């Protein structure tokens, strides 16, 4: 991104989601912009966008041989040569956060530091973005007083929305949220959990993409039922669709890597598409994936995430 682009967007903030064109050598790159984005986000480069119509690269395979488990595993969805470019593009162009929050168990308060970089875009089913970029009621198209007052939602930028549309076409599901995790090394992780929040409705379907370094995805049944644990070594470009009774009955995690495996070659990006039904879902997702701390952006020289300064 040139200095000109950065200064322009800093001095002429716009509340509108709009596209700006900027010549960079031979081709023009358009950007997704929104008043709540810390910086504008380039659209997918043509070299990646032209590949999209041929995804998924291979049909999904069903994994449903354990109680309550229902997965569709695309191995891969994004072919590996494009997955590498998509990984580098998203790592360098998205705003990321390292969210901290407090939890209280009984009288004891603990400060939690999320052990990975995160970011989120989207809005639950009750609202849509109006042409001026503000959330309005999906039916009346009017602003809802006091809604989304703590965190201001951001629309899914074109570069991720193109993948959302491709995922919807391949699965027949609808998604309104995109969560992104960046595991910068083997010490970044996500502990066992299920994505079964009430705001996703019963039996939510979640599409989960892997880009970059290979990491193990572990799955185990919630206590009380005999079932085998699964270990899926997710590779760049793979997509796991988790369906039906899976979230309410199974837990999943990406464990830390130790010893010589700790260095994992530039890290891994995970993208999940989900559908939140109510406003509480929007607040929850922004609270845990954007929060109130600094913005991080990939620094190509230092080859790591650095606190971003306008
Ligand atoms: O990184 C992954 O593959 C899993 C991420 C995940 O489970 C989540 O964000 O809820
Ligand atoms: Fe999850």
Automatic annotation (TrEMBL):
Chain intervals with Polar residues compositional bias: 1-15
Domain Fe2OG dioxygenase: 174-277
Annotated residues for binding of substrate: 196
Region (Disordered): 1-33
Binding-site residues for 2-oxoglutarate, renumbered to this chain: 181, 183, 193, 252, 268, 272, 274
InterPro entries: AlkB-like, AlkB-like_sf, ALKBH2, Oxoglu/Fe-dep_dioxygenase_dom
Pfam families to which the protein is assigned, alphabetical: 2OG-FeII_Oxy_2
Gene Ontology biological process terms from the UniProt entry: DNA alkylation repair
Protein name: Fe2OG dioxygenase domain-containing protein
Compositionally biased tracts (Basic and acidic residues): 19-33
GO MF terms, alphabetically ordered: broad specificity oxidative DNA demethylase activity; cytosine C-5 DNA demethylase activity; ferrous iron binding
